[in-house]
């Protein structure tokens, strides 16, 4: 089955070492998105980037890299994305992390099994 329509893309930019109550913040956000029954969430680990403090974080050849850039992408309806922003805001505000959230329009084409 194919579902098409307009939705919203929520992107959350953070660092790999950002924590919420001792757990990786990106894991907490993904689990919260699942609990809230959002359509899905994907975490991307960057190879290089910088944030609010302008510190370059990058993967180095033959070294274990820590605190690489992380991007979480969540796509769902405008209504659902609007509803979760205050929930994510409350969660993130309890951390001492530099986080950036962007929202943009997304044309959604979703293929599902079945009729």
Summarize the biggest pleated sheet. Answer: 4 strands, antiparallel
Strand content: 35-45%
What portion of residues is helical?
A: 10-25%
Q: What spatial order of strands do you see in the largest sheet? A: 4-7-1-8
> How many E-type strands?
8
Apparent shape: globular
Distance between the termini: 5 Å
The SS-based structural class is: alpha+beta
Order of helices and strands: EEEHEEEEHE
Low-confidence stretches: none
Total helices: the number is 2
How would you describe what is shown here?
- It is a single chain.
- It is built from 2 helices and 8 strands, in the order βββαββββαβ.
- With 115 residues, the protein is an alpha+beta fold.
- β2 and β3 form a beta hairpin.
- α1 (25-35) packs antiparallel against α2.
- The longest helix is centred in the last third of the chain and has 16 residues, at 78-93.
The gist of it:
With 115 residues, the protein is an alpha+beta fold. The strands form three sheets. A four-stranded antiparallel sheet has the order 4-7-1-8. Strands 2-3 form a two-stranded antiparallel sheet.
What keyword list fits this structure?
4-stranded antiparallel β-sheet; 115 residues; alpha+beta; two-stranded antiparallel sheet
List the helices and strands and how they pair.
Layout: E1 2-15, E2 19-20, E3 23-24, H1 25-35, E4 41-45, E5 48-49, E6 57-58, E7 69-76, H2 78-93, E8 100-111
Antiparallel strand pairs: 1-7, 1-8, 2-3, 4-7, 5-6
Helix pairs in contact: 1-2
């Amino acid at each position: 089955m194919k579902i098409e329509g307009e939705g919203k893309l929520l992107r959350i930019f953070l660092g790999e070492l950002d924590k919420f109550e001792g757990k990786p913040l990106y894991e907490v956000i993904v689990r919260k998105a699942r609990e809230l029954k959002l359509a899905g969430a994907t975490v991307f680990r960057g190879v290089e980037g910088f944030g609010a403090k302008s510190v370059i974080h990058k993967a180095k050849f033959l070294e274990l890299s820590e605190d690489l850039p992380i991007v979480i992408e969540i796509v769902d309806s405008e209504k659902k994305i609007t509803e979760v922003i205050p929930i994510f805001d409350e969660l993130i505000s309890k951390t001492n992390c530099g986080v950036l959230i962007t929202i943009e329009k997304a044309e959604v084409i979703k293929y599902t099994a079945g009729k």
